[in-house]
Amino acid sequence: MHFIKQYWFGIFIGLIIFWFLVFFMIVAFAPHHDNQHRGFSRCTEEMADEIQACTQNRFFCTLGAVLSGAGCDVNVIADGFGQWLRGQQPRPWSNYYFTPDLSEPEDEADYLDGQKEYYEAHPDMRETMRRLKEMKGEI
Hints:
Radius of gyration: 22 Å
Number of domains: 2
Mean pLDDT: 83
Number of helices: 5
Largest sheet: none
Strand content: under 5%
Low-confidence stretches: none
Helix content: over 70%
Structural class: mainly alpha
Number of strands: 0
């Protein structure tokens, strides 16, 4: 009991760090791209969209996007645990540890062909981006 009284704060901080690392490992090893938008893929896409939308005060905007993405990831984990308790899935991690569906939908095949043609017609993307930035500066 004397040990707990003396080191309670260190034990508390250690538990917080432990749970953060467990959360980090769960999110790091789960698939983040899936055509059916299961698991963390929705959170990853939302966070990427928020980061791209940051125009002013980029540091705090990006930090806010990352933190909201982490909140979304926590919700995915909590939803999986809740579905497991209700008997809707066999394991608590079934909604974020799965074999991702990466097949190309048929309607995207034409889009990908057009994209391939564009890159063949414009092989130097750096030069194109430089010209676009110059044009933006002129406007």
